[in-house]
Amino acid sequence: MVARFPPRRQVLAWSAALPLAGCARRTEPSAGGIVTITWYASSMTSSHTDPRQSLIDAFQKAHPRIRVKLVSAPTSTDEDQEQLRYAIPRDLGPDVYLGDVVWPADFAKERLALALDDHLPEDFWDRFDPELVAAARSRNRTYAVPFYVNQAVLLYRRDLVPTPPDTWEELAAQADGLVTAGRVKHGFVWQGDRYEGLTCVWTEFSRDAGAEDGLRISTEPSVAALTFMRSLLTSGASPAAVTGFREPQALQSFEAGEAAFLRSWDSAYLSLAQTAAAGTLGVASLPSFAGRVRPGASTIGGWSLYVNPRTRHLPEVLTFLRWMTGVPAQYTIAQYSIIPTNEIVRADPLVGDSPGIKASVQARPVSRPSGRTGYLDLSTVIFTAVHRALTGEAEPRAALTEAQRTIDRLTG
After folding, report:
1. Computed from CA positions of residues 370, 374, 380, 385, in that sequence, does the dihedral angle turn out positive or negative?
2. Which of 80, 92, 211, 405 has a 20 to 30 A CA-CA distance from 165?
3. What pLDDT digit, counting tens, does each position of 219-229 carry?
4. d(Cα 377, Cα 394) in Å, to the nearest integer?
5. pTM of the model
6. Same fold: 7-149+300-366 with 159-297+369-411
7. Domain 159-297+369-411, what architecture?
8. Confidence of residue 298 (pLDDT cuts 50, 70, 90)
9. How far is CA 409 from each of CA 109, 130, 148, rounded to the nearest angstrom?
10. 12 CB-near residues (< 8 Å, 6+ apart)
11. In the chain, how long is the greatest CA-to-CA distance?
12. Phi and psi dihedrals of 396, rounded to 5?
């Protein structure tokens, strides 16, 4: 368990730890020409097994003149950001660090992340899905390297639904029918509370409906998407309680056998696969709307590799980035049921043997509007408007029109 220190104690803990680990500005080559770089990264799994040290060992074997010192980051994203914001401007930061996929714009503005376009060749980025690269960019510059992702998937009960639906319309009809027949308490549960998770769900529905820009939310496709989301509640396909559900509540409802369908992340499948629910557990890519592109949109979550602009060991860090996103390293993380970003590995049928990974890599990744600074403020505007419509406080069109005015002020 990560200790939760007050802000002052956090930065003291950081500044005390990093010099021992070898920080970016103070690490110099040894007499033998060996360079040590520092990698600041939180655990990549929720279990006791974690691939970080295995990756480091394999990298050092392939590149014996480079040593990697691992500094464990807190699992709290807020604490993680606070420590980096303190350390990097003071030359206490790591050479390379693991960061959330929605950080590029704000970290670029604060000069906490190096633009990589001039340091990595154009064909380097071909190893990733273009949408993953787009999520790493801000103002036409790339500030992160996709390392591993979380993808939204559809979990379903195979005893109630032998074949997962292809469209949202089919899912709604099946969910409503199962509830009406008394076979299940709830049809479809998802994350509808007033928080960032609702922005992710909204991103998927709006993109499925044809919206192309995450910041233009008052368009006809967006209105159609929100109208459908509201109809899930009014029809009974989803319970009214969904407007208070976050990941834990939705997962708990599904695990208890109350719901036939659950929209969640690939990690939820891994969690449920270890429980009594595994016998009836099914997983698939998310549906789309009838007549639209399939499979459905799946919001990109996960973590990327960022470079400290103050590193004195950029060549070695770039070598580390290339290796960590190359085929051997990406196969390694797939063995831990972590979703890789390398397209060659993602396409390998052996990797797809895991149902959770298969559903994730077949998903159609879409990014949130995080390429602009102040993303969290923008997200708050979006999920507040969507939540107002879901609860019936405002009509979908009115809620989105009002939110659009606020977004225009924030981005103007």
Report:
1. negative
2. 211
3. 999 999 999 99
4. 21
5. 0.88
6. yes
7. 3-Layer(aba) Sandwich (3.40)
8. very high
9. 19, 29, 34
10. none
11. 76
12. -50, -50
**Total residue length of the chain:** 412
The phi, psi pair for 386, rounded to 5°, reads -60, -40
Domain boundaries 7-149+300-366, corresponding CATH code? 3.40.190.10
Contact criterion met (CB below 8 Å) for 155 and 254: yes
Residue 148, beta-bridge partner list: 303, 340
Domain ranges across the chain: 7-149+300-366, 159-297+369-411
Alpha-carbon distance of 49 to 312, in angstroms, equals 32
What pLDDT score was predicted for residue 244? Answer: 98
- The partner residues of 72 in beta bridges, in order of sequence, read 41
Give mean pLDDT, residues 262-270: 92
